[in-house]
Amino acid sequence: PVSFLSIGLFVGAGVGLYLYFQYEKARVERQRIAEATKGVGKPKVGGPFELVDQNGQVWGSGKMKGKFSLVSQQYKAGQRTKS
After folding, report:
1. How far apart, in whole angstroms, are the C-alpha atoms of residue 68 and residue 79?
2. Contact of 24 with 32, CB cutoff 8 Å
3. Contact, 63 vs 49, CB < 8 A?
4. Alpha carbon distance 63, 70 (integer Å)
5. How far is Cα 45 from Cα 39, in angstroms, rounded to an integer?
C-alpha cells in the first residue's frame, strides 16, 4: 500500500541524499584544489643569473636584456650537479 507518508519519506530521503552528495562533491573539489596549490614558500623564478658555457666563459642574463630568448637546462646521464 502506498500512502502519502511513504511518498513523503521517499521524496525526503531523495532530497536529503541529493543535498548530501552535492555537499560532498564540493568538499572533495575544495580538497583537490588545496592539494594542487599546496607548496612550501615562494619559488625563485626569474631574476638575474649567470651561467658558465662549455668554454668556461661566464654568460648572464645581462646579455639577453631587451631580446626574446629561451633558456633550457640539459643534463648528461651520470652528470653530477652541485647543491
Report:
1. 29
2. no
3. no
4. 13
5. 14
Q: Where are the beta strands (DSSP E) in 8-62?
A: 50-52, 58-60
The total number of residues written for the chain in this structure: 83
Helix, strand, coil percent values for the chain (each to nearest 5):
45, 5, 50
Task: Tell me the C-alpha distance between 18 and 12, whole Å.
Answer: 10
Cell of 16: 536529503
CA count, 13 A, side-chain hemisphere, 75: 6
Full-model pTM = 0.44
Which residues of 1-83 form beta strands (DSSP E)? Answer: 50-52, 58-60
pLDDT tens figures, 9-26: 999 999 999 999 999 999
The candidate with the shortest Cα–Cα distance to 47, out of 34, 62, 26, is 62
